[in-house]
Amino acid sequence: MENKIQANGEAKLTIGDATYDLPIYKGEIGPDVLDIRKLYAQSDMFTFDPGFTSTASCESQITYIDGDKGVLLHRGYPIDQLAEESNFVELCYLLLKGELPTAGEYAEFKSRINQHTMVHDQLSNFFRGFRRDAHPMAIMVGVVGALSAFYHDSLDINDPKQREIASIRLIAKIPTIAAMAYKYSIGQPFVSPRNDLDYSANFLRMCFAVPAEDYVVNPVMARAMDRIFMLHADHEQNASTSTVRLAGSSGANPFACIAAGIACLWGPAHGGANEAALNMLNEIGSVDNIPEFVEGVKSKKYRLMGFGHRVYKNYDPRAKVMQKTCHEVLNEVGSGEDKILQVAMELEKVALNDPYFVERKLYPNIDFYSGITLKAMGFPTEMFTVLFALARTVGWIAQWDEMTTDPSQKIGRPRQIYTGHGQRDYVSLSERKTGKALTNA
Ligand code: ACO
C-alpha cells in the first residue's frame, strides 16, 4: 500500500512548562488525526484510550464509515449500490484489488475461486475429532487455523504471489468449511462443492442438499444469501478486523490470522447480536405486547436488541437493504404474514417515533432483520455467526494484505497505565501469614 496521508498543520500540547508540536494529518474524507507517535519519546507520557474510541490504529484505503450520516463506502462505492447492483464475488475483487473488475478480470477471478473450493481430504478428519454438539464457531476456529498445516506453499507473507494464493484459497474454501461444520453438527454427510454454481448458490447447496434427493437452488434464497454476505464483507477497524491486523503484525501466517479473527467475532458483543434480536422478537411474541416492552426498555429493564451502534448514530445503511431482503425471503417461504416480522416492523415504527430513541440516536442496525431472515432461510441460530465469519473473511484478508504491504507498519504493541503493586520482596511460603490472592488475577 502506498501511504497517502497528508500533513494538515500542527497542534500544540502543553504539559507543565513543556510544549510539544503534534502533526495533524488529513485523510480523503473523515476527521483529521493527531500524530502522537513521538509523544512518549519526547514527554515520557502515554495516551490512555481503552477500547480505542479516539485512536486510529492504521491508515486504510478499503472502507469508510460516517456513523453520523449513516454512510458505508467500500473503495468509495456506497454499500446500498453494491448490494443492489453487484454481487459478492465482484465485491471480493473490489475489496482486495481496489477497483471494480473488467468483464475479463471478473471471469478470471471467479474461475480462480472456483478452482479452490475443495478442501484437502485429510481435513475431513479434523471434523470427526470434534463432538457432534460442538458449536460450529469452535469448529471454524480450529479448522481454519489448521489450514496453515496444509498449504505450506502460501505461508510466506513477504511473497506477493503466496499472499494472493492464500487469499483466494481462504475465500474459496471458507464456504466449504462452514457448510461442513453445519453438516457435521446435524449428522449429515458432507456435500462437495459444485463449481458450476455461483458462490452463494453453491454454499446453500452444500448446507441443504442431501444424497437422497435432488437439490434445486432457489434463486431468491441464493440472491438473499449473496446480499447478506455483501452486507457483512467489511466494516473497517472493528474488533475482529483489528484482531486480524494485530495477529498479522507479528508476521503470523494468513490462515492463523483469520482464525484469530473468527475467535474474536464469536463474542456476543460482536457477531452474536442477531441471535439476541431474534430471541427478543420471539419473547415479545405479538404486536399487542410492544407498548409494555418499550416501557421496559425506557426504564432500562431491557435493551432493544438490534438497535443502536457504537459507530452509526443514524440509520445503519445495511439495515435498509437487510429489511428489503427479509421481506423477499419471507414472501418466498410463504410467511409474509409472519408474526415475528410484524412485531419487528411495528417495533421499528414505535421506536423511531419515540423521543427516548430519537434523542439517543438509536436506529435499527443490520442485526435487527438478519436473524429473522436467516431463520426463514433454514439456518439454526448457532450458524448465524458462522455466516458472518464466512462473509467477513474477505474483509479480514483485504485488511491483512493492506497492513502487510504498508511501509509504516509496525508490530502492534499497546501500552498501559499500571496500577498494581510497586516492587516488593518475595516472602517464602513458611513466612506468609494471610492469603490475599486477587480473585480475578
Ligand atoms: N436499547 C435501549 N437503550 C439503548 C440501546 C438499546 N439497544 N443502546 C443504547 N441505549 C441507550 C443507553 O442506555 C444509553 O442511555 P443513557 O444515556 O440514558 O444512559 C444511551 O443509549 C447510550 O448508550 P451506550 O451504551 O453508551 O451506547 P454505545 O454506543 O456504547 O452502545 C451498542 C452501542 C453496544 C451497540 C448498544 O447500542 C447496544 O447494546 N445495542 C443492542 C445490541 C446490538 O444490537 N448490537 C449490535 C451492534 S451491530 C453489530 O455488531 C454488527
Describe this structure in words.
With 441 residues, the chain is mainly α. Helix content is 47%, strand content 7%. It contains 18 helices and six strands. Strands 1-2-3 form a three-stranded antiparallel sheet. Strands 4-5-6 form a three-stranded antiparallel sheet. The longest helix has 26 residues, at 160-185. Acetyl coenzyme *A (ACO) binds at residues 270, 273, 297, 303-310, 360, 362, 365-367.
Number of helices: 18
Class from helix and strand fractions: mainly alpha
> What's the mean pLDDT score?
93
Spatially, the strands of the biggest sheet line up as 1-2-3
CA gyration radius, whole angstroms: 24 Å
Q: What percentage of residues falls in helices of 4 or more residues?
A: 40-55%
Number of strands: 6
For the terminal residues, how far apart are their CA atoms? 41 Å
Q: Which regions are unreliable across 5 or more consecutive residues at pLDDT < 50? A: none
**Approximately what portion of the residues adopt beta-strand conformation?**
5-15%
Bound molecules: acetyl coenzyme *A
- The general outline is globular
Largest beta-sheet characterization: 3 strands, antiparallel
What is the N-to-C succession of helices and strands? EEEHEEEHHHHHHHHHHHHHHHHH
SSE layout and pairings?
Blueprint: E1 6-15, E2 18-26, E3 33-34, H1 39-43, E4 63-66, E5 71-74, E6 77-78, H2 79-85, H3 88-97, H4 103-114, H5 124-128, H6 136-146, H7 160-185, H8 199-208, H9 219-231, H10 239-248, H11 254-265, H12 273-284, H13 290-298, H14 317-332, H15 339-352, H16 355-359, H17 367-376, H18 384-404
Antiparallel strand pairs: 1-2, 2-3, 4-5, 5-6
